[in-house]
Amino acid sequence: MITRYAALLLVAVAALGSPDPVPPKAGPVEILKTSEIRPGMKGTAWTVFQGGRPEPVPVEIIGLWKNAWGPRQDVILAKLGGKAERTNVAGGMSGSPVYVDGKLIGAIALRMSIFSPDAICGITPIELMLEVNDFDFSIPDDARTPDKAQARAAVEVPGELLARAVAAGASPELPRRNPLMVPIETPLTFSGFHPSVLREFGPLFEQLGLTAVQGGASGALADPTPAPGWERALQPGDAVAGVLVSGDMSISGLGTVTYNDGKRVLAFGHSFFNLGPVDMPMSRAEVLMVLSSAYQPNKFANATEIVGALRQDRRSAILGLLGERAPMIPVNVKVRAFDRQGAVRKEKDLRFHVFIQQKWTPYLMMVTLFNSIAGLNEFAEEVTYRLSGEVELDGQQSLSLATMQAASELPVPAPMLLAGWWGEKFNRLFLNAIKTPRLKRVNATIDLLPERRVATIETAWAALTEVAPGSEVPVKVFLQPYRGERIERDFTVRIPAGLPQGTHKILLSDAETLNRMQSAAAMASRFMDLPETVSLLNQERSNNKLYVSLVQARPTLFYEDKSMPSLPASVANVMQTGRTGNRRFVAWGESVQEQMSIPFDQVITGSYALAIKVR
Q1: Mean pLDDT of the chain
Q2: Domain range for residue 38?
């Protein structure tokens, strides 16, 4: 009788099925070393397919791929089952922990090249990931950052930073021909961004092994301070994100937590940007769905709230600390749309924070500014953009920036040119070789003016051609605007009392003409300190003014942020001879002394010179 009841009980248990496995928790875990891995072993991976709770994925070990990750660094090959058979190895699964007999063996980190019919993955051994915290704080030479992009732009565009972004889109290498096994792409989720931003900048991120996707983020992400409850956040198998931008717009890189000892978190199983030591906010994430695709399977997720900071971005993993706060740069952007009568028709204020890193901050400033104006209903081909901004630095003079940008014949939209100009200023700040800048906050105002406002200096006329020192010369200048009547301006130039006898010039010019030589001097100096960099940027003329200068046939020496006009040739030669190759002067054969500037509400281009003779 007992045997009969026991048999019935077994049948009932079988009918109910085995209980669901319990997701792993933070804390110490037993490790199964790579040397103990054998083909045919069965295991379980944990990853989030929807919501915030990780689900089990059956894993069958194929074997060890010797030295595939580097010298004496093996990769564990495995085949995924369950839901992963349909989704394949998707972007965002990076870091999903894999257990065999309850022991942690590593993280899903690599996948086969596109169109593979099987869910074959590469697992980074946990031994390699645990090495990350043992490294020093030196930044690796092979950091996969935007300045290492090898593509070149097919067209010439202003600014080195913008040229790299355009080059990425023009590269004939995209789409890439992937090798057999590659790191799983990290979905770089853009929330609050217009689709045109992903179209323009997506190829740049693809060069870095990142897939730009549209996504979402909760309002809690706006505050970089760790949210309450961070102590219980990011259990193994949970979705995790590194945050580059947070606030009214956000950019975050999605992956999966591999290991959590209660304070330290390991994730991804490969690098994010391979920057080495970093200081980046780390957040929870909620997965909306996993897109099944033979070409590019990806998780779609919302970053939720910040719970710590990433401290290491190494080849085999990223490492974060729960409860830590990573500093970010607060940015305020005001966008105003004007009507033809000069009244503000509409305005909006955007507030967000930007990740601080010398290579990435300039790019993020460029992308966020472009996004601030690209998605507006007020956007039009003939709109002119007027920007004024202030960058507050800790312990330094503030940086004041102003420019205008209108549509041109270049095959690059005006908002892109404006964003490139903006990003290039931050690039120059962060690439000075002496001191890293500490930015307290950034404010910018962008005005949208409803027409193409460009005027070219056409000709000029002076009432007198022979003058005496100390006298005044009436001058008239003519400018030709884009599709409009010619503009006239009258003004008076005072001839300095000490101006020597002989022939000189009155130069009427745009800002670029006067900025050119000082910019060349800055590029020639490899050791310009931060105060000199800020000073030089503040000295740059604005392109919505016409500049009136006196030109003498005597040389000027430029050195870092300083200019020394009207030097005797003998003095200039002695000074140049006494400098080293790394700290040399840049010489120009003439001396230009600015006398006045005439403001316009247009972009001023060109130059014109009037000859005068001093008696």
Answers
A1: 82
A2: 23-134+182-199+211-323
